Amino acid sequence: MARSDDSSVLGQFIPLHYHHNMLSDGVRMRGFKTAIDYAVPLGGKVLELGGGTGVLSFFAMQKAGKVWCVERNPELVSKARQILSLNDCGKKIKVIKADAFEYLPPEPVDVVICEMIHVAMLREKQIPIINSFKERYLARFGNPLPQFVPEAFIQAVQPVEHDFTFDGFYAPIPILQNPNLIHEKTRELGTPMVYQLHTYRDPIPYQCEWSGDIEIEKEGSLNALRFVTKNILAVVTETKKTIDWHSHYLILPLPKAHPVSLGDSIRIGFSYKAGASISDLEETLTTEVRPSSSESRLPATGAA
Ligand SMILES: C[S@@+](CC[C@H](N)C(=O)[O-])C[C@H]1O[C@@H](n2cnc3c(N)ncnc32)[C@H](O)[C@@H]1O
Hints:
By secondary structure, the chain is an alpha+beta fold.
């Protein structure tokens, strides 16, 4: 049986048919296209880590002089070569079959594009890969580091009430939500609390952790937490604006529902490794509802 930390079960080998979802996500595509167009200098050198179908390298090639597109999955490597050859400028992109944990370009680059992002920085290896890349790049080429696309990320957690019934069947399981749609089955019970904000250029901790209180702003049955990851694809200094893309939200059911009222708070704690599984996050998660009007404390974790 596969172990939960096997790379094969942790988003490292996304099958080809799933790439259709990524290519069809207009918000993601437009965000990356605009950010890449902004970040890549005319005639510049670009490295993409985790190229998939090669679409982001294709965007980069519209302005760059050289693009190296690194992909580990052999099926995707040959598909990317084939697809890129069907697109203008695509043939100029060098598709390399390699592990992004090991590959370095033959010369310094201006921009590194890497989209191995899953909500909460779970499953996929964005943070370990960027950390490994920076260390090896600096050892070989020295400063300056290239510009990264995305440039930064912000993570938040929010108390919610979620309806886990499916045609009358009750199944409290982790759910991924499209951030661009309205979700009638989810009621927000408090404001999202930011627990991480990092720029890729600076050191990023491998551990994603937080412990703190969130105030309950609406009465309800607190039975889940929503995890939010906002990716800052580029900071446009001229307009002081950012080009953003939200990963799918994660709704994580709690072991037990708690009736909560305005003014209560929930104390949340978790600590998981970037790239770990959703169940790794669940295992470290502790929650405790703290009623506003009483001394009593209601522990929520572990109760059936
Ligand atoms: C989320 S997909 C993004 C694909 C493409 N960049 C896009 O935006 O459509 C991540 C890609 O990274 C590749 N990948 C995952 N781990 C890798 C590694 N260690 N080295 C190289 N590629 C990797 C996967 O096979 C997958 O194609």
